[in-house]
Design a protein that fits this description.
This protein has 446 residues and is of the alpha/beta class. It contains 17 helices and 18 strands. The strands form two sheets. Strands 1, 2, 3, 4, 5, 15, 16, 17 and 18 form a nine-stranded mixed sheet that branches. Strands 6, 7, 8, 9, 10, 11, 12, 13 and 14 form a nine-stranded parallel sheet that branches.
């Protein structure tokens, strides 16, 4: 994977997701050393700039890479093994035991498989939560495949019926996390940033949460990433243990704020929405996961009307069962239209922004990514328009949200490096990866 010194990327339609949501026909961008240096019509770009490398854009939409604000790449090998279960049963019966039994190599393979699927379907940035042990192997997978990510081990110290091998003391958990911050935070041209991934309050004692907040405050550009208010049963358990509601408990611990992203956020009362707004906490919306686990429908419309920053996400493969943000866009807007019985709720342009620039804002990376603008990182994708699902074609944003899928993605560039193009990964050996997955799969069959 080599960053091109300079390259021109063309498209029939350039969807910028900039503040004015500008769309340019017969367009091109000029990239130098991984940075978008110019954009405009093809005629304008070729008049003012030249490059020995030109990526053709016939029958293509060029757009910002998608931002997955909550993922568990490490769970990908468990796809299809935890279907039709409620959240807490899903965790206790399959997911956490599965993660606990992963070897170090299986963590690497599972994470690499997850990131490969994200890249293949147009995700260039992921906010990713690994597992409790050998999480270095997950970070290694992110480094190798070229994905941009906030990433870190899963932090937990409370045994509520979870595998005992996953439980360490709060001090031990944080000692390892701090070691990882020193190793990984800001490496690879700042493509990899570490995060403090508190699993959720049911697996984190008040002491661990206090240490997480204290550690978070000591570092620049470090985020807290956790789950909250995902299901009614989970909220009930948190209230039993903490004697207060989920969001109030997080607030009182000091864990909320502009550098915290909360996955799900479905079951909030009126005051809790106010707390999220007042603390400027970010929300990650996971429509497929919330639907499959029957957790509920997140009130995206309310968050947006309250001015709360909210991004889009897939969650992990066992509760989805894919990692395609295009599918999440489509489902997210449909669910809000049904929830409010209003066909105008969460229109295509708004949900596309959630998958790009608003997602980047949610993980505090919008100065570098999330839109195609001069000075930003060249994290861009091309979406092919030559297949039957693009016929007839009238408007690019409508097509991206309502018609396209991740399999229409034909080129993925991250940090100015092509990581996927015309059905080929440039950063990993997909056949070798398939062989490794088959070895793990045999464990379940035998």
């Amino acid at each position: 994977m080599v960053r091109l010194k300079e390259v021109i990327v063309e498209a029939d339609h350039l969807v910028t997701c900039n503040p004015s949501d500008k769309v340019i026909k017969n367009a091109a961008i000029y990239v130098v050393d991984g940075i978008i240096s110019a954009l405009g019509t093809k005629k304008e770009i070729h008049k003012d700039y030249s490059s020995s490398k030109i990526i053709d854009g016939e029958n293509k939409i060029l757009m910002p890479g998608l931002v997955n604000t909550h993922s568990h790449s490490v769970q990908t090998l468990l796809r299809g093994k935890a279907d039709d279960l409620a959240l807490l049963d899903w965790l206790k019966e399959v997911i956490l035991p599965g993660e606990a039994n992963f070897t170090a190599n299986e963590i690497y393979v599972s994470s690499l498989l997850g990131f490969a699927e994200m890249i293949r379907t147009g995700t260039t940035t992921a906010n990713d939560m690994l597992t409790t042990h050998d999480s270095e192997k997950g970070v290694e997978a992110a480094i190798e495949c070229g994905v941009r990510t906030r990433i870190g081990k899963m932090l937990m110290d409370s045994n509520q019926g979870y595998p005992t091998s996953m439980i360490k003391s709060a001090d031990e958990v944080m000692e390892e996390a701090i070691k990882h911050i020193g190793q990984y935070h800001g490496i690879e041209n700042k493509r990899i940033k570490y995060s403090l991934n508190a699993r959720f309050l049911l697996s984190c004692t008040p002491k661990l949460m206090k240490l997480i907040v204290e550690t978070h405050n000591q570092y620049e550009d470090l985020m807290i990433h956790t789950h909250a208010s995902e299901s009614k049963a989970e909220c009930k358990e948190v209230e039993r243990i903490y004697k207060k509601s989920y969001i109030r408990a997080l607030r009182d611990i000091g864990a909320l704020g502009s550098k915290t992203i909360v996955a799900h956020g479905i079951w909030l009362d009126d005051d809790e929405y106010k707390i999220i707004k007042e603390t400027n906490t970010r929300i990650s919306h996971n429509p497929s996961s919330n639907s499959k686990l029957a957790s509920g429908i997140c009130d995206v419309k309310r968050y947006l009307e309250d001015g709360i920053i909210i991004g889009l996400a897939t969650d992990g493969a066992p509760c989805n069962n894919n990692l395609d943000i295009f599918r999440e866009m489509r489902l997210a807007t449909f669910l809000q239209k049904i929830k409010y019985l209003n066909e105008r709720t969460l229109p295509a342009k708004q949900i596309l922004r959630m998958a790009t620039i608003e997602g980047a804002k949610a993980i505090n990376w919008d100065n570098d990514i999330g839109s195609i603008e001069v000075g930003k990182k060249a994290d861009v994708i091309q979406v092919d328009l030559s297949d039957v699902n693009a016929l007839p074609f009238y408007e690019p944003i409508s097509h991206l949200v309502y018609s396209a899928s991740g399999k229409d993605v034909s080129m993925v560039m991250i940090d100015g490096k092509i990581v996927f193009q015309e059905q080929t990964f440039t950063t990993l050996d997909i056949n070798k990866l398939k062989e490794e997955v088959a070895i793990y799969q045999k464990k379940w069959i035998e």
